[in-house]
Design goal:
homodimer, Maf protein, Molybdenum Cofactor Biosythetic Enzyme, Chain A, 5-stranded mixed sheet, alpha/beta, Alpha-Beta Plaits
């Protein structure tokens, strides 16, 4: 089954936003066993959009269009696709009610006239409810020609849930063999090194296959098997996954695609009955913000501190004035006292601290931009790490967050070992 | 001059990497005044690549191809493009020397036979030195047909410097008029409503044009003019921008594309000589994390608090036990006391607080998931807002952050009015 992607939107065409939707959908479709040979981006222009849709339908079985389903008159995807399929649009009462309910839910009475445009659907189309916005998804089938168009709203927070909840199962039903996979998620080992460590496995791959995915500060390997049943697929993947555990050991924190590093850590803390606090300087709340992405983090996290100023580091965390004078705010010593102080102030079993120079300013020859110290206190024992990042301000802060989470994982596992 | 982008590579096609190159090049080309109507992604397949190149040359003046210039036999971009232009490849001694020098520089003696493939260039092509890798860039012109192909290596750290140093000036020379733009950035007004408010301006647009861009919790409008000089362009854009200010008033926080909402707020605080603190429950550090994206935020921000637990709200912020008992942690009263308490604890002039139910759990009929209270203290005066968000945990937290920033802006501006 050949699937092709068309991303609609002048913002993508002019480079104002990066086309992450295409990457997401391509990856998901590939995992479902679909073949992908083309991706196209077109703007909100009727004629060019029509050409793109006709060409795509000509060479592929299924065309997935994202974007251009908004309420404005620039949004033309539905209208143009309906015309290509020779379908009229009608007002779908169900979609209209959902739009009313949506506006009611967000407490807005300002439904403008053009919002009703989103309740217009092509005759014979399958309407997919949008749980995160007002534009429904649409599947338009032409059984005679064996061609299908799938229309999904462009905002990623609407597109992704809709794909996962409805479109994926629709596509899966059309496939003879299922594709099943695990994501082996690794932290604390760099991308190049991790790939070198499994180069032989990647070379030898047939079924299952092994493919690396780089994420900020983490490396993920997808193990994918093609099989008639999930059980059979699991049997095929088992030896490969066991081999990954043998090679990477505790650096593998999960093989569950849905589980994030912060969720893994919150679960680990819960399991150990421990609480955590944070003391952040350069990351300025991003570390805690990421940890608390994990639903249910309230069981392990009571409070955290953003201590940007030196005086705040002293006042809230009890960092010694002499330490700041002698070693500076960006030092292993300060990171250590911050972690110890955060654990004490929050009466927590563990604490993470981050202090560094994110840039663009503030660097010196001795302490350049990208220098970050991370501290981790677990049951009174404090470890620190010196890191050198080479990105811009944003990237340096993101890397510091992941490095801190990785250090916490290592220390929690080491603490477990000591207790044994 | 119509420019079209073709990204070559199976990794992009299958979604293993996000196509950031296309966004980068599209934005740069649009700013150079080029028109962009199509972007295409194809894999390392000879036939499909040739089709894509021929089609692109058919409808555009210049085709920029990225990727597929590596040393392996999968890398076909140069070979296929040369064939389309009817050119033979020859060994370019200059490129060969540069490849040798490159390997010498990175201290590697492992020049494999296939590296020399990268020194093969099409007859008559302009060869662009690659200062960050081994594959040179290539410009192949067909003056008779008025068509040009520009080939650039795929790795962003090779592509971007090459574009900036050589390709941009090449394209600029071909352009009669430049393109200049401002981004009118608006907070506190929803996308649909904002677009309705300027529908007539969008309809009437020719030069300058007006186009909306939705961002989480903000709306941006790009005003773009085509002119022979920047001065002339500014003259053309001025009436449109003034009209936007008339309609949106203080909701316009900048017309500078580079300036973010957090940078604007940090600048506003600096201007007023005020400091800020934060007290976060459901956003758990994300609000401070975003504010401190702004370089130089240390001048206005000393410390902030993540008070997830009720006990922490009492202990750190002095929220009254009775308030939590009577109204609950998610209430306007608690948000108010959090903001007041944060300002006091941090000895700050202003403070923002956020308390809410981000989900997925924790909602009740009276207090559903998505209910968030925001508090803002400015010089002892506290305002609160009740918000109802309808996204998932992540989206609710992101929206809460933007709404808090927006409230701070409103209150800072209002405080300025009162003083007058």
């Amino acid at each position: 089954m050949v699937v092709e992607l068309i991303s609609v939107g002048t913002e993508i065409l002019l480079g104002n936003i990066v086309n992450t939707n295409a990457a997401y959908l391509a990856e998901k479709c590939a995992l479902l066993g679909c073949s992908l040979y083309h991706q196209t981006v077109v703007g909100d222009n009727e004629e060019r959009m029509e050409d793109a849709i006709r060409q795509a339908l000509d060479r592929s079985d299924i065309v997935i269009l994202t974007g251009g389903l908004g309420p404005t008159k620039d949004d033309l995807t539905k209208e143009v696709t309906a015309r290509v399929f020779g379908r009229e649009l009608y007002l779908d009462e169900h979609s209209k009610e959902r739009i009313e309910a949506y506006f009611g839910r967000i407490g807005s009475s300002r439904i403008t006239e053009n919002n009703w445009k989103q309740a217009l659907v092509p005759e014979g189309a399958i309407v997919i409810d949008n749980h995160n916005g007002t534009a429904p998804g649409l599947i338009i089938e032409d059984p005679e020609k064996g061609k299908t168009a799938i229309l999904i709203p462009g905002p990623p927070n609407e597109m992704k849930p809709m794909f996962e909840q409805d479109i994926a199962s629709y596509l899966n039903k059309l496939q003879p063999e299922g594709i099943y996979s695990h994501m082996v998620k690794i932290c604390g080992i760099g991308e190049s090194r991790a790939e070198t460590m499994v180069a032989d496995l990647m070379d030898a791959q047939t079924n299952p296959t092994l493919a690396p995915y780089a994420k900020t500060g983490e490396v993920h390997f997808r193990v994918t098997a093609k099989a008639k049943s999930e059980e059979e697929a699991e049997e095929l993947m088992k030896p490969m996954i066991e081999e990954m555990y043998r090679r990477f050991g505790d650096a593998v924190y999960t093989i569950n695609e849905q589980e994030t590093l912060e969720e893994n850590l919150v679960a680990l803390l819960k399991e150990k009955g421990m609480t955590l606090s944070t003391a952040e300087s350069c990351t300025g709340g991003k570390l805690a913000g990421r940890l608390l992405n994990a639903a249910g983090a309230s069981e392990v996290f009571n409070e955290g501190y953003i201590t940007y100023a030196n005086a705040s580091k002293e006042k809230i965390l009890g960092v010694k004035h002499e330490t700041l004078e002698e070693f500076g705010a960006v030092s292993a010593q300060t990171a250590e006292e911050m972690a110890r102080g955060a654990a004490k102030a929050a009466e927590a079993d563990a604490a993470l601290s981050v202090t560094g120079i994110a840039g663009p300013g503030g660097g010196t020859k001795e302490k350049p931009v990208g220098l970050v110290y991370i501290g981790c206190a677990v049951n009174g024992r404090v470890t620190t790490r010196e890191c050198h990042f080479t990105g811009n301000r944003e990237k340096n802060r993101d890397y510091a967050v992941v490095r801190a989470l990785t250090l916490l994982r290592e220390e929690l596992l080491a603490a477990g070992q000591q207790q044994k």
